[in-house]
Design goal:
It is a single chain. This protein is α/β, with parallel strands linked by helices. It has a single domain, classed as NAD(P)-binding Rossmann-like Domain (Rossmann fold), CATH 3.40.50.720. 43% of the residues lie in helices and 14% in strands. The chain has 7 helices and 7 strands. A 7-stranded parallel sheet has the order 3-2-1-4-5-6-7, with helices on both faces. The longest helix is centred in the middle third of the chain and has 31 residues. The chain is globular.
Length: 265
């Protein structure tokens, strides 16, 4: 069992991509980590990398990995139970679970099945997990076990940028933005801060079919900061929330998008 004085973060999708980058940054700051993953065969490597990052920064932290399908209610409940059993606390939830890339389909031809599939994966799983964790946080705050916990959801610029070939994805992301506002409103009285990190174009492999197109747009000024974003940019934004640098804020959107959200003439 972890030392009860150590802060504990549950990071969904914590073994890959942005989730892994976030977990690594939090470990550098001395956080203990619970990495949710989708039965990832490489999760052991992720745990070792996170532990090494903590060690390099002079910290000794506990890192656990938990397999869980976030679309299944029983598995979500089991995940929260396992985290609480292992660490006795949850100080931070980071919803960073990465769903499959959206399939391009004309808005007028998108099926009901496509909407249901995307909404289940990108919205309902994170929303219902957040509900479970928030309830645990309230209980722990009222019992004096933790103070000032935080919830962060990693979202996409698709929450506000229309893409008519990816309707379900845009709808799900817009709903995630409202999810942050709702939980911020409900949990503020308990001292629980809720935030969204809205992510823009993050560096991808030059072999990605979309790389050339977006690389050219960036060079032409699509974003005021004319470069790709990096996973570390997102991880450091989460760390700012985790380290209570925004202690008198809640419901905020932290734009990590190179300025894409600015309305420019």
């Amino acid at each position: 069992m972890a030392d009860e004085t150590k802060r504990v973060a549950l990071v969904t999708g914590g073994s890959v991509g942005l989730g892994r980058a976030i977990a690594t940054e939090l470990a550098r700051c001395g956080w203990c980590l619970c990495l949710q993953h989708d039965h990832d065969a490489e999760v052991g490597e992720a745990v070792e990398a996170v532990e090494q990052a903590a060690s390099d920064a002079g910290h000794s932290v506990d890192v656990e990995a938990f397999a869980c399908d976030l679309s299944v209610a029983a598995q979500r409940e089991q995940l929260v139970e396992e985290v609480v059993e292992a660490f006795d606390r949850i100080d931070l939830l980071v919803n960073a679970h990465a769903s499959a890339p959206p399939t391009a389909t004309d808005l007028l031809e998108t099926s009901e099945e496509a909407y249901r599939s995307v909404l289940d994966a990108q919205l309902l799983g994170p929303l219902l997990l957040t509900q479970l964790v928030a309830s645990e946080m309230v209980r722990m705050v009222e019992a004096g076990l933790i103070e000032g916990p935080r919830i962060v959801t990693i979202n996409s610029i698709s929450a506000e940028a229309s893409s008519v070939d990816h309707g379900p994805h845009c709808v799900a992301r817009a709903a995630l933005a409202m999810m942050t506002r709702l939980f911020a409103d409900r949990l503020g009285e308990h001292g629980i801060g809720v935030f969204e990190v809205r992510v823009g174009l993050i560096s991808t492999s030059p072999m990605d079919p979309a790389y050339g197109r977006y690389n050219a747009l960036i060079e032409q000024g699509l974003t005021p900061i004319r470069r790709w974003g990096h996973p570390g940019d997102v991880a450091r934004a989460v760390s700012a929330v985790a380290e209570d640098l925004l202690g008198f804020s809640t419901g905020e959107v932290l734009h990590v998008d190179g300025g894409f959200h600015l309305r420019r003439l």
